[in-house]
């Protein structure tokens, strides 16, 4: 895919890349964009993505490549002033959401005349989220774009006139080796759907994880209440939460301190969650595309995964399901345990000159701490999160009192 994309973008000014979720299309278009950059302190490539989570994922991929160039990310949910200050030295690549990029253009925080490459990632999702006016505005301000890439996991997209996407060359990738996705179901009485879901979740083994999808926020909230009542640890993710809270919920799920993510379809695309064992459909989506994208969270990159439908006898089963799913082997008298890890919050981050290396050194200074006790960590501008073995959490908080982190006094707490 990466090679085909590079060849196509060198021969064609307008390219559409259609590829399934989890196939590596982000790296494919990034490599193509990087090959056209010049050694100049100006914004040359603009990548537009519909959600903050996808923006951060793209930025993360670029940082992992350890390139000698500057990348800025722009999105809502944190101060505009921080982003404006970051433009004091212009980045080569700018990644952002439509609304925030529009704000920056209106306030002239960067020069748009230097942009020669434009990438629309998850373009169909941007339209679905109602960003048409923002996209129209942005494209109208870009007079010197020479190369455009439109990326989507959905084939059924219409190209609006304002994109000026003449004679596009389309690259379409389907997985040659189908990942091992098993679609199964459980059938429960009409009034016992939540009980059925709890029974499925109690079948999760230690180290396994699952996303529970619902069509509406209120269903997520009902599930959330039931999990709270039963003492089951989970994370919640839907559009009604503040962006900062959504990112925190994802952090806990990614680092394994929660096994369950209760979510609407906003979690079906554009977030980085590797190695997912189960996708659970508490409610079946109305559209086949949504069903495909949900299932695309698991069985990624040739891995195996299971998709489970929670059905009542009265539920409508759409034709797009095809063959009747087999019954999930629901074991009785089992209960999901607590994850091995818990997340700690540290009130210091990048702006305090704190790195992941600093955090590892800080926690390993304690005699009771071993390398295996530390899990994934994320360092943000003003704070950090680290997964730590659950039994070491309170001991760590107590031991950290009075201990300096790069001559600063951190406040550490259970997140």
Question: Can you put this structure into words, describing what you see?
Answer:
The chain is of the alpha/beta class. The chain has three domains: 2-172, P-loop containing nucleotide triphosphate hydrolases (Rossmann fold); 180-327, P-loop containing nucleotide triphosphate hydrolases (Rossmann fold); 341-414, 2-Layer Sandwich (Alpha-Beta Plaits). The chain has helices spanning 2-11, 25-34, 52-64, 80-86, 98-106, 123-128, 132-141, 193-201, 217-229, 243-254, 288-295, 356-364, 393-400; strands at residues 14-18, 45-48, 71-74, 93-96, 117-120, 147-152, 169-172, 180-188, 210-213, 235-237, 260-263, 278-281, 304-312, 326-327, 341-346, 374-379, 384-389, 412-414. Strands 3-4-2-5-6-1-7 form a seven-stranded parallel sheet. Strands 10-11-9-12-13-8-14 form a seven-stranded parallel sheet. A four-stranded antiparallel sheet has the order 16-17-15-18, with helices on both faces. α11 links the parallel β12 (278-281) and β13 (304-312). α1 packs across α2 (25-34). The mean pLDDT is 90. Pfam families: DbpA, DEAD, Helicase_C. Residues 196-350 form the Helicase C-terminal domain. Residues 6-173 form the Helicase ATP-binding domain.
């Amino acid at each position: 895919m990466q090679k085909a994309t590079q060849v196509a973008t060198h021969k064609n000014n307008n390219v559409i890349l259609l590829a399934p979720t989890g196939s590596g299309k982000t790296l494919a278009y990034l490599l193509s964009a990087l090959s056209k950059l010049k050694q100049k302190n100006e914004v040359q490539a603009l990548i537009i993505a519909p959600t903050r989570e996808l923006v951060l994922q793209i930025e993360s991929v670029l940082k992992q490549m350890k390139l000698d160039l500057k990348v800025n990310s722009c999105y809502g949910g944190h101060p505009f002033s921080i982003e404006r200050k970051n433009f004091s030295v212009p980045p080569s690549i700018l990644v952002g959401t439509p609304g925030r990029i529009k704000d920056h253009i209106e306030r002239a925080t960067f020069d748009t005349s230097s942009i020669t490459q434009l990438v629309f990632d998850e373009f169909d999702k941007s339209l679905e989220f109602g960003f048409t006016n923002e996209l129209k505005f942005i494209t109208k301000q870009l007079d010197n774009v020479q190369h455009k890439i439109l990326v989507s996991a959905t084939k059924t997209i219409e190209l609006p006139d304002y994109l000026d996407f003449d004679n596009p060359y389309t690259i379409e990738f389907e997985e040659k080796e189908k990942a091992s996705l098993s679609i199964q179901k459980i059938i429960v009485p009409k009034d016992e759907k939540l009980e059925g879901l709890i029974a499925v979740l109690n079948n999760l083994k230690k180290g396994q994880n699952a996303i529970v999808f619902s069509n509406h926020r209120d269903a997520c909230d009902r599930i959330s209440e039931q999990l709270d009542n039963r003492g089951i640890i989970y994370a919640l993710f839907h559009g009604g939460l503040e962006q900062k809270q959504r990112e925190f919920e994802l952090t806990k799920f990614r680092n394994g301190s929660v096994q369950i993510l209760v979510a609407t379809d906003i979690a079906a695309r554009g977030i980085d969650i590797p190695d997912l064992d189960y996708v659970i459909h508490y409610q079946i989506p109305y559209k086949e595309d949504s069903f495909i994208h949900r299932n695309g969270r698991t069985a990624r990159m040739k891995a195996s995964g299971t998709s489970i439908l929670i059905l009542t006898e009265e539920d409508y089963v759409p034709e797009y399901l095809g063959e009747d799913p087999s019954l999930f082997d629901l074991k009785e008298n089992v209960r999901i345990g607590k994850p091995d890890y818990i997340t700690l919050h540290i009130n210091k981050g990048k702006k305090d000159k704190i790195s992941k290396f600093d955090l590892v050194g800080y926690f390993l200074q304690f005699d009771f701490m071993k390398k295996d006790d530390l899990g994934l960590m994320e360092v943000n501008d003003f704070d950090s999160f680290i997964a730590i073995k659950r039994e070491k959490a309170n001991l760590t908080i107590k031991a950290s009192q009075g201990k300096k982190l790069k001559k600063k006094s951190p406040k550490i707490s259970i997140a």
